[in-house]
Amino acid sequence: MSATSDYLEVALAAADAAAEAVRPYFRMGLTADDKADDSPVTLADRAAEQAMRAVLAARCPGHGIIGEEFGETGPASETVGGGLRWVLDPIDGTRAFITGRTTFGTLIALIEHETPLIGIIDQPITRERWVGVTGRPTVFTGPLGGAAGCRPCARLGDAELSCTSPEIFDETTRPAFDRLRGAVRRASWGGDCYGFGLLALGQIDVIAEAGLKPWDWAALVPVIAGAGGSVTDWAGQPLRLGGSGDVLALGDGRLLPKAVSLLG
After folding, report:
1. What is the pLDDT of residues 152-208, one digit of tens each?
2. Which of 75, 123, 169, 204 could cross-link 128 (Cys pair, CB 3.0–4.6 Å)?
3. Domains in the chain, start-ordered, CATH in brackets?
4. Quick check: helix, strand or coil at residue 57?
């Protein structure tokens, strides 16, 4: 298989399977359990990841899988299957999901060693989908219309900044984020992966998050890059599986030096 053809079909099939698993649970009053890291998980999270894993097991049996709910499975070495692994987040934004908001999404990535090749952000309720493939323009589909493409924004003072929650920061990262927030035009909270989708649609200019896991960020990299933006760590370097998970997404590359300086 080639990453830009057959593997993309697999990723889309997995997204379809996850969406079918999630929709029956939406706004049905699900209760959530707390995991070891105090993040919530529901039956919908587990059902969606199981649905995706079933697709991948049938069509890519030689690949490893890193999933939020069921961990890392598959070949013991990442070199098996050419170093290709799938990274899955069945519901990114479970808090939004259990409170009936549509600012959550399913994230699917195919990585080679540590480099994301394919990324999908799928919102199963609004039926919006962002598909990113390395070297290709990002494709957005949805009933409300719109086209993928980050907007020009040369100055932080003109930028819209977004972040999921102030609770993600600690005593080290909070002062850095506050410096960035003080330099932008306006800041807003909430969104999880949906915010990154909006950045790829030219609605947001900067997103800074701290402590994200690989399943939180891997799918975002091809989506944002294909829309003309970038996703890096706070030092402006490529994200790594064992890194801090401090993520900086920008719609306009001209913002990078100043943003990195403030976050440093």
Report:
1. 999 999 999 999 999 999 999 999 999 999 999 999 999 999 999 999 999 999 999
2. 123
3. 6-141 (3.30.540.10), 156-263 (3.40.190.80)
4. helix
